[in-house]
Amino acid sequence: MPEDGLLEERNRRRVIFHSDMNAFYASAEQAERPELRGVPLVVGGHEERRHGIVLAKSAQAKAVGVVTGEALWQAREKCPGLVVVTPRYDVYQKYSRLARRIYYQYTDLVEPFGLDEAWLDLTGTLALSSRSALDVACEISQRVKDELGCTVSIGVSWNKVFAKFGSDYRKPDAVTVVVPDNYRDIVWPASVGDLLYVGSATRAKLHSSGIDTVGDLACASPELLRRRLGKVGGMLRTFARGEDATPVKPFDMARNEVDRTVKSFGNGLTAPHDIACEADARALIWLLAESVAQRLREARFRARTVSVGVRDAADLSGYGRQVTLPRATNVTGRIARAAWDLLVANEPLDDTRPLRGLHVRASNLEPMDAPQQLELAFDPRRRALEDLDEAVDELRRRFGNTCIQRGTELLDESLLDLDVKRDNVVHPVGWF
C-alpha cells in the first residue's frame, strides 16, 4: 500500500471523543444548588449594568422557548416563574476541572475547547482494552452525571471535526458515533453551517455558490473553494470529507502551554452607562488593561500587539484597531497607554458619538523567558513599572482584585465594584 494510503488507514483507526457539557452554566448552578434543580433557570448578566441578556438556560427554560442571547425581560415574558442567577465563573471553572479529572482517568490526551468542551484521544487506551468506544463513552457520560450532577453529549469518531459534529448532533445527554461506514448518512445531509468553523459569513458565501450541505462542500471543486474562501476553503473541504488528521493536543499545565491553546488575552465590557467623555473612557480602558496585563503576567507571557474594540451606543456597530509595540510587554501602564492612544486617535470621546462598550486585547505573544533585544537607551522606568506591577499582583493574590485600584479607575463610580478579571469568560480557542 502506498505511504499516503497507510497514513490514511492509520488515521481512520483513531478513536476521538468530543465531550460537550450540556447547558453548562445553568447545569453547574443547578448541581451546586439543589433547590434550583428541575426549575426553569437562566444565567443572566447584571441588568443594572446593562448586561441583561440570557447567557445560558436550563432544559426547563429551553422547553418554554427561552433562547440564549435574548433580553431577560423577553425571557420572563415567556416564563413568568423564571429564576435568574448572575454568573459565577469560579463555579464553572471548578466543574470544568472536575469533568476533566474524569476524562484524565481514561487518557492523558485531553484537549480543552473552552470551559465546557474537550477532545479526548482514546486510540491507545482502547487498543489495550477489549471494550468498545461506545461503552467507554457511555461510561464517561454516566460518571459525569453521577459525580457532578451534569450531563454531557459525546461524539465519537476517527477525527476531531466529526467528533465535534457528533456531540452537537443529539442533545442533551447523548452519545453519537460517526464512523467511516455511516458519516455520509449522518454528516453529509446536514447544513454546511453545522460544520466546525463555518460561520454565518462563510455559510452565505458557500450558499451563493450552491453549497448548502456538508456533502455539497465535500464534493465541491477545490478551485471554486479557493476562489471563494482562500486557503480556508481547502481546509473546510478536508473537514467535510473526514480527512482531518489534526492530533489531540493535551494542555500541559506544568509547561503552561498558553502559547498553543490561547493566542491572545482580552477583556471587554458593556459599560453601565454610555461613555461620552474622556474621563469615563480612560477609567474603562485602564480597568480592562489591568485585567489583560495581570493575566499575561500570571501566564508568564508578554505581548507585542495591543488592540482595542469599540461598540457604538447608537446602532451597536463596532470596529477594532491595533498597534504593534517596539518590544513585547506585560506592564499594565504600557498596555493601557497603547490602548488609550488607539482609542483617542479614532474616537471624539464626547456626546457626539457615545460608546456602548470597549474591549482591550493583547496578542502576538512570547514567553517571559524568551530573550529580548537589548535597548541602546536604557529606560529606568521600565524596571520600576515591572516592580510596581509585581507588588500590586501580590496584594491582589492575598486580598482580592479590588483591594487596590488606580486613581484613573476611580473616575467613574459605576465601575468601582467591577472585577473584570474575575468575571472573565473563557471562550473556545481558534483552530487556525
UniProtKB/TrEMBL annotation:
The keyword Zinc does not apply. One of its GO terms (molecular function) is DNA-directed DNA polymerase activity. Its cofactor is Mg(2+). Gene3D superfamilies: 3.30.70.270, 3.40.1170.60, 5' to 3' exonuclease, C-terminal subdomain, DNA polymerase, Y-family, little finger domain. Mg(2+) binds at residues 20, 116. SUPFAM superfamilies: DNA/RNA polymerases, Lesion bypass DNA polymerase (Y-family), little finger domain. InterPro entries: DNA/RNA_pol_sf (IPR043502), DNA_pol_Y-fam_lit_finger_sf (IPR036775), DNA_pol_Y-fam_little_finger (IPR017961), DNA_polymerase-Y (IPR050116), DNApol_IV (IPR022880), IMS_HHH_1 (IPR053848), Rev_trsase/Diguanyl_cyclase (IPR043128), UmuC (IPR001126). It is an enzyme of class 2 (transferase). Keywords: Cytoplasm, DNA damage, DNA repair, DNA replication, DNA-binding, DNA-directed DNA polymerase, Magnesium, Metal-binding, Mutator protein, Nucleotidyltransferase, Transferase. The active site is at 117. GO terms for cellular component: cytosol. Its EC number is 2.7.7.7. Monomer. Belongs to the DNA polymerase type-Y family. This is DNA polymerase IV. It comes from Gordonibacter massiliensis (ex Traore et al. 2017). The gene is dinB.
